[in-house]
Amino acid sequence: MRSIIILVVFLCLAAGCGMYQKRKTYRRIDRLLDSVLSRETIISDGYSDVREGEYSALVSKIMQIQTVLNGHAQSAEKEKEQVKSLVSNMSHQLKTPLANLSLYAEILGKEELAPKQRAEFAHKMCKQADKLSWIIESLSKMVKLEQNIEGFEARNEGIRQTILDAVDTVYEKLEKKEIQLFLEPFEDRELYHNRKWTAEVFVNILENAIKYTENGGFVSIHVRPYELYTEIQIADNGKGIRQEELTDIFRRFYRSPEAENIEGSGIGLYLSNLILEKEKGYITAASEYGEGSRFSVFLQNCKN
What we know:
alpha+beta; five-stranded mixed β-sheet; two-stranded antiparallel ribbon; 7 helices; 7 strands; disordered N terminus
């Protein structure tokens, strides 16, 4: 009889201890979940005895979940800051042409304005409207590439026509400033690229060369094949770029302090870099300040 009583007492104590241990473990798991929800760092050493027991897998999973959630939270915060920066930069880019349009419209509304002056301000309005349209179009292209809204496809195509398309786009600007263009003869090559978007790259570089080169200067284009890549180099004898700015010029919306009074948005080179990344190519820049710049686009050769 006594042995039965001892056995019953032992079982009751064991059950009590088991229930106590389970309640203790439950409370610890509950605190772990609270830490996850409040984004507090979980210190694993404080749960060593739990990890060594039957709930070790659960504790480990909770800690993994916290790591993943923290990563998502940091990514979301980073994206939020990027969006804020983008909106701020876009507002800055659009502010000037919009303000000018408003000013010119107000001036044109004055009855005492002479016909010649009216025509002059109407022309200025058209230029600002064109600039506004160009900025919005560039921003649209940038967003499409960053978000891959349009399926970007590259393939092996001859590079000659891509270069000629770009030259044709800027030819009028070259003539207007009487800038000589030297296109070194080269054998057409099949390179991995998207003709439309890569022509945009060359147009951006050529327009910058024209913009920062004095009347009567020159711009040259050279094509040099290598084992894995082909280099398309565009050089000019313009004002050049300071060495400390060579890494900054590819940043989104970057404008040199010396270019504040020159028309531009700081999107072109950033957009070009983005396009080339999608084509598994790249771009480099070299310059002697006051003597000119050289931009080299590297595209992958066709793999036979």
